[in-house]
Amino acid sequence: MHEITDAEQDAFDTDGAVPLRGVISDEWLEVLREAVERDIADPGPWFHGYIPDSGVGRFHGNVRIWETDPELRRFVTEGPLPALAARLMGSTRLNLFYDQLFVKEPLTTNSTRWHNDLPYWPVRGSQIMSFWIALDPVTRDSGGLEFVRGSHRDGIWYQPETFGKTKGHGEYERNPNYVDMPDIDSTRADYDIITWDLEPGDVYAFHAMTVHGAGGNNRNDVRRRGYTIRYCGDDAVYD
After folding, report:
1. In 3D, which of 86, 120, 98, 105 has the Cα closest to residue 211?
2. 47: three-class secondary structure by DSSP
3. pLDDT confidence of 48, banded at 50, 70, 90?
4. 131-147, pLDDT tens digit by residue?
5. Is 210 in contact with 147 (CB distance < 8 Å)?
6. What is the pTM of this model?
7. What residues are paired with 18 via a beta bridge?
8. How confident is the model at residue 167 (pLDDT cuts 50, 70, 90)?
9. Vertex 193: Cα angle to 153 and 81 (nearest 5)
10. Alpha-helical runs (H) found in the chain
């Protein structure tokens, strides 16, 4: 069981994102990898794979997989992450929100646009977070996540936008209370951007309002299998 250090807690609270090393055991990693391959071979009902931007590679996406895969259900409820989520958010109660899969095969150049998560979701509260689990070695060149340090404390709700071309998904409804995401990639020097390389079993832990994004998998020798679980704490409500 990973024990959250004071430094990790401070980074989560202050920066809005922190890497946690070696959180997922080899045994659990094997369970997750097998589940990913099952979903790629026979996707669950919420499959939303994206069309490769360059015509090369494959970007497999899916959500709510735990609802139909007993092994993932066991992981998201009995694995190491629920206790870590409660500790990081300072919550006495925990609700599983949903899980999500992002697989960028080698040379899949699709980027994941800059965004914060909460504007996409029908929940509100300060105790809402995600874990992004690395099933492969992850670097910025293979599509590692990047975060704008402290952006979860800005209180800015960015207008949701689609993440790529996919069947059956139109544009998001405009919300007059949201603002458009600035072009961060063109003005990177204006932002305090943080990122970390991950090894299999490491995770990114981040707040639901932290602005983040990822590049494509530009490697020809590495898959980028990322499995994400979202949890809600005491003050989270449906909205």
Report:
1. 120
2. coil
3. confident
4. 999 999 999 999 999 99
5. yes
6. 0.95
7. 205
8. low
9. 65
10. 6-15, 26-41, 70-78, 81-89
Residue 41: burial class (beta carbons within 10 Å; 0-12, 13-18, 19+):
exposed
Residue 119 buriedness (CB in 10 A; 0-12 / 13-18 / 19+): buried
Q: How far apart are CA 45 and CA 20, in angstroms?
A: 31
3-class SS of residue 202: coil
Is the model's pLDDT at 209 over the cut of 90? yes
**Six-digit token string for 192:** 């305090």
Residue 27 to residue 15: CA distance in whole angstroms: 31
DSSP one-letter code for 185: G
Contact yes or no for 182/113 (Cβ under 8 A): no
What pLDDT score does 55 carry? Answer: 87
Q: Which two tokens stand for residue 50?
A: 């994206």
Distance CA 35, CA 50 (A): 20
